[in-house]
Design goal:
By secondary structure, the chain is mostly helical. It contains four helices and no strands. α1 packs across α2.
């Protein structure tokens, strides 16, 4: 719920395509960092970032 609000703000300011692209870039970056995480706190941090990246995509593109 918290991420959806931020995703809506980003989508309103940059547009749906740019918001989608930002979400994809953040998702790719977080997945790469998840691969190389060696400490539990790194895993939790990048997992949360991965979850927030989904909310940056506009709702209509998620479904």
């Amino acid at each position: 719920m918290l991420g959806e609000i931020q995703g809506g703000v980003v989508a309103n300011r940059t547009g749906a395509k740019a918001s989608f692209l930002i979400g994809v870039i953040v998702k790719i970056g977080s997945l790469i960092m998840l691969i190389y995480s060696v400490e539990p706190w790194m895993f939790f941090l990048f997992s949360a970032l991965n979850g927030l990246s989904v909310t940056l995509r506009p709702f209509s593109m998620n479904h």
